[in-house]
Amino acid sequence: MAAMKTRLEKARRIVVKVGSALLVDEKSGTLKASWLSSLVDDIADLRVSGAEVILVSSGAIALGRRTLGLPKGKLELPQKQAAAAVGQIALAQAWAEALRTRNIVAAQVLVTLHDTEERRRYLNGRATLGTLLAQGAVPVINENDTVATTEIRYGDNDRLAARVASMMSADCLVLLSDIDGLYSAPPNRKGAEFIPEVRAITPEIEAMAGKPVSGVGSGGMITKIDAAKIALGAGCNMVIASGHVEHPLRRIRAGERVTWFLAEATPLQSRKRWIAGTLQPTGRLTIDDGARAALIRGKSLLPAGVKAISGSFSRGDTVSVVGADGQEIARGLVAYDSADAQRIKGRKSSEIEKELGLAGRDELIHRDDLVMMTGTADGQ
Fold first, then answer.
1. Residue 332 phi, psi dihedral angles, 5° rounding
2. What residues form DSSP beta bridges with 135?
3. Distance CA 353, CA 249 (A)
4. For 12, which DSSP code?
5. pTM (two decimals)
6. Please, what sign has the CA dihedral across residues 298, 299, 304, 309?
7. pLDDT tens column, 111-163
8. If DSSP codes are grouped into helix, strand and coil, which group holds residue 58?
């Protein structure tokens, strides 16, 4: 129990997914205000302990359909989008007001599938969310159901939350669910065994997933297993816990029964392994001895240390970093297109805005996006 307790407490960046069935009363179609208040108390406690929190919240359609007087049961896509347009206002207001009582600023972020799958949108989204967290805000993310069509939808917020956790290099993804974890069979079936810990998504684990159990939400254990694949691949631990109790995060920290999915590596290690494994970098940066020494010490690559640039690449592409002898020193995700990189190479970071006409990143490659390739202390 003690180990389980510390997993959430040790996480410095946490994504919490809240489903419609937990947030909205199915019969009345109204918000569960008391439950929301208890969850916000838990979020405030996590922040006091030094953690950053990102919320992925369902509930817009469930709230909007009541306001519009739409019938129960399955809705057509235009009805869902209309309900989302109305309900999203109420949902955002509910989160903003609840967080405000704890002196926390809420930020609404609506995304579609393209926002986490297309490189430029992914990078922009990562930068925006990172800035919000740095300013002390809690981003509240939901799928933009108002405009998303079947072809560009996640369809559930479990997988969306996992993609957000991956994008933001989160340490832990919390899926607040209808049940308290994963079972070997539907929990109401005789002989179903509770699974407290999963270290790999095997065919046997996938076979344990069932169908959605809620009439309000769109997820189920299948989507949670899919989310676990994404999270674990990004080095992010994931936990499935019951949300049908007040203070659900506090209960996880207290070591109550949940299912933990444990990643083999940290988010940073997983990210750097992915960078190092790029088969064909799209560009090449030649650096001086001073920059090489800085990289070995774990520093970022600044434009001032770059002597030459070759290749055509876009922001976010993987490039090779080499020394004057042509030996590859590192690989990393570059923060500028090749044309802009050419303009700022050899210049001080303070000169970037003057040269490009806009204030970009100080680093050409940030240390979190760079992996050493020559067996130095920072090599993977």
1. -165, 170
2. none
3. 43
4. S
5. 0.82
6. positive
7. 888 788 777 788 889 999 999 999 999 999 998 877 665 544 566 789 999 99
8. coil
